[in-house]
Structures are given as structure tokens and as C-alpha cells.
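dumping this here so i dont lose it again. seq + smiles for zinc ion
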Amino acid sequence: MHELGVTESIVNIALDKAKEAQASKIVKINIVIGELSGFVPDCIEFYFDFVSKNSIAEGAKLHFELAPAEFRCRTCSTIFHPHDTTWTCPECQSQSVEMTGGRELYVENMEVE
Amino acid sequence: MKKIEIVQNILEANELIASQNQRLLDEHKVFAINIMSSPGAGKTSLILQTIARLKDKLRIGVVEGDFASTIDADKVKDEAAAVVQITTRNMSEQCALIANMVSHALKCLPLGDIDLLLIENVGNLLCPAEFVLGEHRRVVISSLPEGDDKPIKYPVIFANADAVVINKLDFLPYVDFDIAAFEKALKGLNPEVRIFRVSCKTGEGIENWCSWLLGELKASRTGK
Ligand SMILES: [Zn+2]
């Protein structure tokens, strides 16, 4: 359900930028979403039809790019993308790791007419 | 067809309202705690224990945001100095509090008469991790019956917590929960986190938790 608020934000951002660019129609919105973030693209898509209705974003295609989880080892500084859900450094097996990627949620760009 | 570069954080709108909430809280010298956990981990019990232990020292307000757990809400209403329950039209579908809901709740509270505000978030470890509310500290409760793999399954919420309360310590003889492994995984993700082992049932460890809370609140005031 929190995707409703997020979808509203996406539409607001897109409409603002479209207005600045004096566009008449939004064709496609590219969104980057982190693998570790709590957002589900399907839900955003579901709400999008409803939220964008009667705006120049209506009918726009949403494209989601998944940003992978990324960690940095605090012991040996190795940066790694975990393959399962044990956040252990592949080089030194340290479990002391800093999350450096996978939390993204932003509108990257869009195509307009 | 034209391409427009944007790169704008989608959660920015929420973060803006959260910072307005925090400013309002600061103006009234209210110290706010966002309490998050899975359903049934003991958010309400911890709130009740905290009130019982600190109500002679602090005026405590509560924002009840867990729509699923209304059973003890009445008990909280009896104990706290002020309580506001967040209700929205589609209550049952909400999976996290967002800053805007808290902003409305703050308008219903006598902020001048509150020192400590406990915000009970919706029972879930995924969605509340994404939305700041304007709180000063973020606390996650994890209880023994849930298993010791929660920090690995939900790294975001644990990596950004100021404190983690391990609740239902009284279950230790009956469940397979490796406290050392849990704490190691947690400290790995979040070396600064404070960990409290408590049982809201027996009261064990509650004193440590409450003295941390009191210390954080006092430190925030002298910092002003
Ligand atoms: Zn390493």
C-alpha cells in the first residue's frame, strides 16, 4: 500500500519536469529501484494507471531498472554483490559489512513528446 | 521524442515532511522514537513497560500506528499522558507510517506537555525502513520466537536502527535462537547500534533500555 504514496511522488516528479520542458505527453519513465528497498514494481505499476489518469502521464510506460545489493567489507574494503542472503565478505569472510547499494529509489529520466 | 534527465529521489517528498515534523518536535522539546518490528514482537508491551518505568520522570505521549494491534491500545490510553491513534480511510492496507500521517497526528497532541513521544509503527520489517517520520531515534524490536535470521533477511531496517531490542528473552529455553549469532550479524551491518536484551513479560532488561532512552533524551536537550 505504501506504493500508492510512492507512485504519487513519481507522477508528481514526472509532471513537474514535463511542465518545465513544455512537453505535451510523457511516453516513458525510467525508475531505478534498489534490490534491498521495500518497493514492488508491480504495485507501482498497478497504482500508476490510477494516479496518472487524466494527466499527460496517462498511458506512459514505466521501466524499472533493478539496482543490485552492494556491500563494502569494513575489514578489507572489498566491494561485493552478495549472491544469497549471507552478507559475508567473499575475500576475508568478515561479517562486518557496510551497505553501499541496493536502497535506491529514484526517477532517472523520461521520454516526452 | 525527447529525453529528459531527472535523477530525483522519489522519497524526497516524505523526507521533507519528516524534517518539518522534526522541527515541530524540537520547538516543543519533544524527543520522538520510531518503534518498528514484525507483528507480535512486542511493540505495545515495550511501550507499556517504558511508560510504567518512566512515567514519574517524563510526560510520555504515544502515536499508535499499528492498525492490526488494537487489543492493548486501550491499556496504552490509560497509562500514557496523551495518545493519538492514526486512522486512515484504507487503514487495513497500510503497511508503514509515512511522515504525512505523523504530521496530522502531531496536530492532535499537546506537544507542550510531552517530553517523550513513542511512535508505534505498523508491524512489518520491510516498508517502515523506507520512510522517516521526523523521529530522533529509530528502534527495532526483534523477538526470540521470530528466529535469529532477521538482520540478514531485512538488512535495511537493522542497518539504520539506533537501537535493537531483543524481546521475549523468557523464551530462550524453548526456542532455537542463537543470540550471539544474531548480535554478530547485526553489529556487522551496524557497528554503532545499541542492543538490549529484554523480556517485557518478566521485566528483565527493561531498566537498561529505559536508562538508555533517558540518557539519549537528556543528551539531546543539552545539545540544544
Ligand atoms: Zn573482507
